[in-house]
Amino acid sequence: MGADFALLVGAAGIGSNPDFLSFRFDLDQLAHHQVVIEHDASLSRADLSTGDNPSFNQTIWDTVLAYYRGMSQTSIPVAARARYNRVQTERARDPTFTYGPAQLIFSYGETALYLSTLGDPTTGVAPVEYVRALFEEERLPYKEGWKPTAQPTTLASLAAMVVKLNAANGEVIPEGLTLTETTLRAALRGLHPVTGELLDPPLQTISGLLGIK
């Protein structure tokens, strides 16, 4: 994991704590919509308004896993279709579905992250058994043979993967939004990725204290 990405994600987690100046957080605090990285159409959780969003949901995860049926390794086109199906499903059934520019970036980022960290950060090829261990057992798949790659997952490599995922499913992105390292960084800092509007003041404070620009 590249230091630039790790620092931003850590700051986002700290910003989820109402007492953010304690510089710590727990996973339950990430379950609320006001937390910048929380988003609808998760690959393995229900939306906030339709179910228990912090807990792993096997039924939802099975809809993602179905796209990998018969495959031993992931691919960008298949991962892109699985992700977009989740967006379309929740858009149709969640009356409060929220999917603006920031949520779109985090939704793509979720898929880009598991492809990059469990497999090749450029090609997005990873063993499906690694992916299942991460989502179903919430652990890194050391037992299955996973090791960190020599190429770290950075903001730049994640942004490049997001672009490939979007190209693979052809989803139309909001007007004015570009899928770049700059917009990914802005979203993780609590800024609107198109307008630059401040969406998360605590996260902006944390970013300043940590020297994140």
TrEMBL record:
Keywords: Heme, Iron, Metal-binding, Oxidoreductase, Peroxidase
UniProt xrefs under InterPro entries: Chloroperoxidase, Chloroperoxidase-like_sf
Family: Belongs to the chloroperoxidase family.
Keyword Heme in annotation: yes
Matching Pfam families: Peroxidase_2 (PF01328)
Upper lineage: Eukaryota, Fungi, Dikarya, Ascomycota, Pezizomycotina
Signal peptide start-end: none
PANTHER family, alphabetized: PEROXIDASE STCC (PTHR33577:SF9), STERIGMATOCYSTIN BIOSYNTHESIS PEROXIDASE STCC-RELATED (PTHR33577)
Superkingdom of origin: Eukaryota
Record domain Heme haloperoxidase family profile: where: 1-160
MF terms in GO: metal ion binding; peroxidase activity
Cofactor(s) this protein cannot do without: heme b
Protein name: Heme haloperoxidase family profile domain-containing protein
The keyword Heme appears for this protein: yes
Species in which this protein is naturally found: Diplocarpon rosae
